[in-house]
Amino acid sequence: MRVPVATTSHQYEVVLGHNFLAEAVKTFDDKLQKADKLIVFTDANVWAAQGEYFKGHFPYDFEVFVLPGGEACKTFEQYNAAQTFLLEQKCSRKSFIFAFGGGAVGDLTGFVAATYMRGVPFIQIPTTILAHDSAVGGKTAINHPLGKNMIGAFYQPEGVIYDTLFIESLPEREVRSGTAEVIKHAMISSASWLQQLMGAESVIHFSTTELAQQLKAGIEVKAKIVSEDETEQSVRKYLNLGHTYGHAIEAAAGYGKVAHGEAVMIGLVYCLLLSERYGKLDRDFTTAFLHFAVKNGYPFEAVNDYSFEQLTTYLLKDKKAEYGVLQFVLLEEIGKPFVRPIELAECKEIDAEFRQLLAEVLG
Ligand SMILES: NC(=O)c1ccc[n+]([C@@H]2O[C@H](COP(=O)([O-])OP(=O)(O)OC[C@H]3O[C@@H](n4cnc5c(N)ncnc54)[C@H](O)[C@@H]3O)[C@@H](O)[C@H]2O)c1
Ligand SMILES: [Zn+2]
Q1: Which CATH architecture does the domain made up of 1-167 adopt?
Q2: How does 134-148 read in b/e, with b if 16+ C-beta sit within 10 Å?
């Protein structure tokens, strides 16, 4: 399966398959033939789980640089170490980098590729469900002690190779986290798709074929949006559905305690409550959605660990907040997102409604 991505700055393809790494890499042969060196960036967990398969199926010689697992690779220190590695390997502008891992490896690698000698080509080989989102669209970043993703660049890859075989070793919590972004893509694009997800026995244990279809559908939504708006001036903002409140929960918990997508799922329910006021959605739908999320194991208890006052600091840190007014993505109906400024006082009211609804549903 293929999904073309056509941004203003660059055109490329996402190729999707199962157990097809060698074949998939070869589809980029015309580009790789010109490379003087191939480098693979990965993280320790991914390499431990999938390194053998990768070595056995990657069709060319390469050098590997193994980063610390997950978010720990998105630091200035690792950025520096990665650049040092490329220099020591005598990489040139003709070298090619592969990001083999989840969103964290992808973000770090993309930023290294964007800046090494002012830019070298790179290919994303995502290994998480969440990375169907992060590997497409060209946002790259590392974290600063004062804020997540604060240092980065828009830099598109030469391609994305998505082999669903890699997902097989992904811990269930990470599956759950990544699936929240699939659900988000459904919510901003298609009522029937969301209905299908909400009707599924489980969204955490899809078959390989089902999973590939869900990922493809998610990538198509993302590709369409970034082709209209590469640098988040307009419609790309819709991808932030659930992220304003979600980021606050994620940050208040301390990164890692509540996984990104778990927090996004919490934020999605918050946005549904807010959307009841400004769109056509009603409480029955919000309640049904919350039941669906709880059934699939999303950790809503986390909300009760923080007061609204604790969340406020983080809400106001949002890149989109100005003078105490937040910019929320809301839904007119499923598939029809829009952006609306919301004052902090109203956020507090919704937060109270949210806690009450959670008490009713969680018991
Ligand atoms: N650039 C973007 O547009 C964008 C969008 C969304 C999120 N992000 C970023 O993505 C990151 C989150 O990505 P993620 O959820 O993929 O997390 P991740 O990359 O941290 O991976 C999650 C965990 O699973 C491990 N792992 C990954 N693949 C595995 C596999 N196949 N088998 C076993 N273990 C595996 C990792 O080592 C890590 O511990 C965040 O840093 C976030 O800021 C970026
Ligand atoms: Zn996200």
Answers
A1: 3-Layer(aba) Sandwich (3.40)
A2: bbbbbbbbbbeeeeb
- Nearest CA, atom 4, ligand 1: 134
d(CA 134, CA 129): 9
Structural contact between residues 29 and 53, judged by C-beta atoms closer than 8 angstroms: no
Which CATH topology does 171-360 take? Answer: Dehydroquinate synthase-like, alpha domain (1.20.1090)
Domain boundaries for CATH 3.40.50.1970 within the chain: 1-167
pLDDT tens for each residue of 216-244: 999 999 999 999 888 888 899 999 999 99
The answer, as to whether pTM is greater than 0.70, is: yes
Q: What is the Cα–Cα distance from 40 to 135, expressed in whole angstroms?
A: 15
CB 50 less than 6 A from any atom of ligand 1: yes
Residues noted as catalytic: 118, 139, 181, 222, 232, 236, 240, 243, 247, 260
- Residue of minimum CA distance from atom 15 in ligand 1: 130
Look-up of token digits 């998105």: 74
Tens digit of pLDDT for each residue in 155-197? 999 999 999 999 999 999 999 999 999 999 999 999 999 999 9
Strand partners, 101: 126
**pLDDT tens string 296-330:** 999 999 999 999 999 998 998 876 667 778 999 99
Q: Is 213 helix (H, G, I), strand (E, B) or coil?
A: helix
Bind-site residues for Zn(2+): 181, 243, 260
Q: Is 143's C-beta closer than 6 angstroms to any atom of ligand 1?
A: no
Inter-residue contact 358 to 306 (CB < 8 Å): no
Half-sphere exposure of 359 (CA within 13 A, CB side): 7
Residue of minimum CA distance from atom 23 in ligand 1? 70
Per DSSP, 167 falls in state G
CA–CA separation, 151 and 52 (whole Å): 33
Q: What is the mean pLDDT of residues 195-222?
A: 95
73: burial class by Cβ within 10 Å (0-12, 13-18, 19+)?
A: buried
